[in-house]
Design goal:
With about 475 residues, this protein is of the alpha/beta class. The protein has two domains: about 220 residues, no CATH class; about 180 residues, no CATH class. Helix content is about 50%, strand content about 15%. It has 21 helices and twelve strands. β7 and β8 form a beta hairpin. α19 runs parallel beside α21. The longest helix is centred in the last third of the chain and has 22 residues. It is elongated. This is DGQHR domain-containing protein. InterPro entries: DGQHR-contain_dom (IPR017601). It comes from Methanorbis furvi.
Length: about 475
């Protein structure tokens, strides 16, 4: 009997034979089940027609490549898909467990979906400049990678509901408004309205795990565990059927020519137009409180951790008895008439934070220096604090340059053998600026606008400081 050699590992096949493939090649069962290798008949094996009610990618490792095939089908020409593939996708439905509810007699469905199902079936209708069609923005790679890191590292991987359209779908009730949304397993059947960046994060994570699996030839148990955890993740999803909505609108206006994409675009516009971003100062406060609670792994916080370190110090500067009491808007609440946004004050401290000496200070020492520094400023320019509306010092254009100058004063004090934590010593240096004009009517600072303006303001303060220092 002729020996059959595995075309993948080169060993004689003594057990189950798979093939033949192109050029009359065969593979052994071990290689066939290797998740890093793909063979077309894996599709039929993984998804036998009529044997699965829904797309189930939870435990079968070779389905990594099946997902890839779906993704390729979504991008390419469906006519090139193999006969096996066409048979599979024409006979299988995805069953999404949902709860039906109504808003103004428009049926909506809230349910859950797994990442593999989302990756296989989702698509976006991207804005086309030439055709003036579509509505979605491009995926932002950096944002996708942030979401990937969040999913990997954060102990609280909270993913808000994705909003999507399923044009070709039917609702099958099980009990009252509970049931399943059925739609053919086919690339593009789930059109993302809101959530493409989150979906992009799952794409990034899938490709990373797949790459790791392909690299390892021996113990892949940890990677397999990560993969299974990824596949079992449940994503909340709000679904609309635009065709049902169009039917409802036709009852009111039979001449209407509304298309599914028009419904989806309208949802997209309303969602993005009516959402208001969280105030930047409140974001800084929430980032600090989140880290203080011991919750880590959120990329938006991790990449600017220094801000969260400075927030409690700025909070202290705003308390009663502190030099900036009542002047800092900590959470961005309107109507408080506080001229200094916390987020701006924190941003203006970046040069000081990067100073080696200040960076090594404890939190108490950082607060002591800044409290002494701004107490000295208040002593030299009391009128600017008593009548803040008439002066620029406690506005962004004055606060930024003053905090930048704190680095020069700190370094000079150390050079002179002075104690930067001694308020009286700090005062003697700040006093050199006593002739600076901060009036909103006559000050040169009133012409300084934006980031470049604060840079010019700092240069003016710096020139004045060193000139007066040279004359003492």
């Amino acid at each position: 009997m002729k020996k059959i050699i595995c075309s993948s590992c080169g060993r004689e096949i003594l057990d189950k034979v798979h093939g033949p493939y192109s050029d009359d090649q065969y593979v052994c069962d071990k290689c066939w089940n290797d998740p890093s290798l793909f063979f077309e008949d894996k599709i039929a094996s993984s998804f036998k027609v009529n044997s699965h009610e829904s797309l189930n990618l939870t435990n079968i490792m070779n389905q990594i490549e099946t997902i890839d095939m779906y993704l390729s089908a979504m991008k390419g020409d469906n006519s090139e898909i193999s006969e096996t593939w066409l048979q599979l996708i024409s006979c299988q439905n995805l069953h999404i467990p949902v709860l039906r509810f109504s808003q103004k007699n428009v049926p909506l469905f809230i349910g859950k979906i797994h990442p593999a199902e989302l990756l296989v079936m989702s698509s976006i209708d991207q804005w086309n400049e030439e055709k003036l069609e579509g509505y979605q923005r491009e995926r932002i790679k950096e944002k996708n990678r942030e979401i990937k890191e969040f999913l990997k590292n954060c102990a609280l991987p909270i993913v808000p509901p994705i909003i999507a359209s399923v044009r070709n779908s039917t609702f099958q009730p099980i009990s009252d408004d509970y049931g399943t949304m059925e739609t053919p397993i086919y690339p593009g059947n789930i059109v993302l309205i809101d959530g493409q960046q989150r979906t992009g994060g799952f794409f990034e994570l899938f490709h990373e795990i797949r790459s790791e699996i392909r690299k390892f030839n021996q113990d892949t148990s940890k990677i397999v565990e990560r993969y299974n955890e990824f596949l079992q993740f449940e994503i909340p999803i709000l679904l609309i059927n635009p065709n049902q909505i169009i039917q409802k609108m036709h009852k009111c206006d039979e001449s209407s020519l509304i298309r599914p994409i028009d419904i989806e675009r309208a949802f997209f516009f309303v969602i993005n137009k009516t959402q208001k971003s969280v105030n930047s100062s409140l974001k800084d406060e929430l980032a600090y409180l989140t880290l203080a609670a011991g919750i880590t792994g959120i990329p938006a916080i991790e990449k600017e951790k220094w801000r969260a370190e400075l927030v409690p110090i700025v909070n202290e500067l705003n308390k009663k008895g502190s030099p900036l009491h009542g002047l800092i808007s900590l959470g961005g609440i309107s109507g408080l008439r506080r001229p200094i946004p916390l987020t701006s004050f924190v941003s203006s401290l970046k040069p000081l934070y990067d100073n080696t000496v200040f960076h090594e200070y404890s939190q108490d020492q950082k607060l002591q220096f800044l409290s002494g520094y701004w107490s000295a400023i208040k002593s030299v320019f009391p009128f600017a604090f008593d009548e803040s509306k008439r002066y620029l010092l406690t506005k962004t254009i004055g606060m930024y340059p003053m905090n930048s100058l704190s680095v020069d004063i700190l370094n000079k004090m150390l050079e002179d053998g002075k104690d930067p934590l001694n308020g009286q010593d700090i005062y003697s240096y700040v006093l050199l600026l006593k002739n600076i004009d901060w009036s909103v009517e006559t000050s040169d600072f009133r012409y300084y606008i934006g980031k470049k303006g604060t840079g010019k303001g700092y240069q003016q303060l710096k020139d004045c400081f060193w000139l007066e220092l040279a004359n003492t």
